[in-house]
Amino acid sequence: MSGPRVNSFFLGNSSGVNFSIILSSVDEETGKLQLANCSGSKRAGDWHLNVTPGMNTSKVTISLTRNLQLCLPNATDCCTTPLCVVETLQVLACRDSVVLAHLLIQAEIYANSSFRGNVSENATIIPNQVFHPLGSCPCDLTAGACDVRCCCDLECTPDLKQLFNESCFTGVFGGDVNPPFDQLCSSQSLEYIPDWFPFLCVQSSLNNTPFLGYFYHGSTSIPRVPPFKIPLQTSPGRLFTGYRQGDPIMTEENEYFTIPQQSMAGQCVGNAPVACLQNFDVKCLTNLASYKEGLSHDVRINSGTGDFIQQNVIYRTITNTGKFVTEDESLHIAEVLCQNVTFAEDYTLIWKDKNIEQINVTVFLGSLCDGEILAQRFTVKFQSLKSTNATVLFGNPGYQVGKPVKAANMNASDTFGSLNIWQPAGRGLCTLATSTPVLFGLDSFSGCILEVGIDEDCSLLRGNVTEKLNSLVQATHVGKRDNSSYSDLNDWVEIIRLDPFNFDTNVSSGNLKGICPDIPANLNIRIIFADVGAVQGIPQQDILAVQISYSVVIWQFQCGLICENSTSFLPITASVQFIKVPAQPPVPLTRFQINYTEFDCNRNDVCWPQLFYPLTRFYTGEPYSQCLAKGLLLAFLVLLAAIMSNPWFSKLWNSSLV
User: Fold this and answer.
1) What's the rounded Cα separation, in Å, for the pair 364 and 378?
2) What percentage of the chain has pLDDT greater than the value 90?
3) Residue 92, pLDDT above cutoff 60
4) Which part of the chain is the Tectonic-1-3 domain (predicted)?
């Protein structure tokens, strides 16, 4: 046992059974435990035995009654070493001096690291961190105990320091509260020391260090947590000036209109606000025990002008629940309890200009029983009143992050195309994998597994892999903008394909069985975009170019002891990378800037073009009036030194003294 208490059970009738505990010692000559008899009691040293009788089972509890805290200075009844208790116990169950059961316990218990002593009421005097270090050992966070990896902690004994001596905290946190700084004359930390360093270095003690006050700023303030409400604008005549993209939709009670959504961690949040013009489609797993009703459909929504609109709700019943419900195999319930719950909610918000004109809600109801897991689905779609195309967002034709990339196949009669990546399911096989659209601004990496036999022909394997990768890109062009028209070719950019070379003529598979070189197993999609403007403060992002390339691998059959009649696996992947470039190319450097780098302030410590920077308006270290006064004084001293160094001044000075 390693804790102060341990439980065991005595099986059988405990009436007339006497339980006792004995501290056992080891015979130094034989190394064996001394024989125990039934003459013990329920207390032995610092140990106590307690028995809770039952019907056919009795609970036996052995507990330690001593203190397990490490000893502080001038303290008693404590542990002098970290390994506080090392003892051997024997628990006996006897009836009429006959041993019925015997339990041997080896106890090795360490002292507690938490501090439970009396806290002094004397106020701690905190030094002024501007002039003195706030603490000589910042990593000493626990009073009366050793902090791991804190080598400056005085509570750490030499034995404990050996456990983490090679991984101690470094820097100011590890106790080096006065490190030598770079401007110190005795510091040799700089790899390159300029020639003027001995003339301008600082000769000072380490007590006067720029690291003072590094951890503690000095001023504290009580944080003000904003409430889960935002006030509406109360200008006369209009209570609200309309929604912009990303603004939360408000209700009549001046609260957020919430629908369950997925968080960054992948979990569903029940009270997530709905953002204007941001569609989503989420699934949330729940069961009957944890099911909760969402926001009531009687809540009226603020249209954006101070008026309130009612939700148009249509209820439908789902009879085939196979797409929503799965059985929990870990639960086996005799009596099944069922309840009518919401399976899905479909919201369609119709907007015009900056206002919400109408809300249509379709609620799908079904029966959920105990032992079943429900995949609730919530969809929100914003649709323009003037057009059924929901991708036209308040006049912003550019892409928004999270929207599908628009593709087209200009070589087919039906110009609609697709640009997808895999969405594996089950075992991750390519035969079971589905596809999902490429979302703008989100780098993605997915793949699936292809089963390959040992007698697979390399040419056929290359063709099969290439066909599966090409099935993801059923397009020849990609829309520059989210509202690209299929009838205007100028709204599209052609996909640049770097197809793999002809394997049949350039690659020889050889006579090696189970090895195929140059398999195009990786599809790389690179999309270049830029910010070409802004509409109502929202950046307009357009796609400039799309490139598709392949990466080849060497496939080798993997098998165990027997390779016959078995299959191996070939993982094939697809990656999407979005690269942002400036809308306009940067201004090229002049020949002077390329050749004379000593005048480049970004690559040199000395910046001559900024010699008079303190006298400009860009310098904010001091008030401008003080900078101007100091500059004029400095100019006067320079002028005075120039005059006094002139020979005629010395002649004039000597003549005035005569």
Assistant:
1) 10
2) 11
3) yes
4) 241-383, 398-581
Residues 307, 449, single domain; the answer is no
Query: Which residue from 192, 287, 299, 312 is spatially nearest to 253, judged by alpha carbons?
Result: 299
Instruction: Tell me the longest C-alpha to C-alpha distance in the chain.
Output: 132
* DSSP assignment letter at 256: B
Identify whether 151 is part of a domain.
no
Instruction: Confirm whether pTM is higher than 0.70.
Output: no
Beta bridge partners of 103: 91
Are residues 355 and 269 part of one domain?
Answer: yes
Rounded Cα gap, residues 316 and 313, in angstroms: 10
For residue 638, give its domain range. 613-654
Report d(CA 14, CA 363) in Å as an integer. Answer: 62
Sign of the Cα pseudo-torsion (183, 188, 189, 191, in order): positive
Judge contact between 324 and 375, C-beta under 8 A: yes
What per-residue confidence (pLDDT) applies to 523? Answer: 92
- Rounded to whole angstroms, the Cα distance separating 176 from 130 reads 17
Strand order in the sheet with 5-11: 5-11, 57-64, 47-52, 43-44
| Total number of domains constituting the chain | 4
pLDDT of 58 above 90: no
Question: Which residue has 């569903």 as its token pair?
Answer: 268
Instruction: Find out whether 182 and 211 touch, Cβ atoms under 8 Å.
Output: no
Residue ranges of the alpha helices (H) in 79-224?
Answer: 158-161, 197-200
Query: Is 570 found in the same domain as 427?
Result: yes
b or e along 22-43 (b: 16 or more beta carbons within 10 Å of the residue's beta carbon)?
bebeeeeeeeeeeebebebeee
pLDDT tens digits, residue range 113-132?
Answer: 655 555 555 556 666 666 66
The confidence band for 235, taking pLDDT boundaries of 50, 70 and 90, is: very low
- Residue 117: C-alpha distances to residues 75, 84, 515, 583 (Å): 10, 18, 70, 66
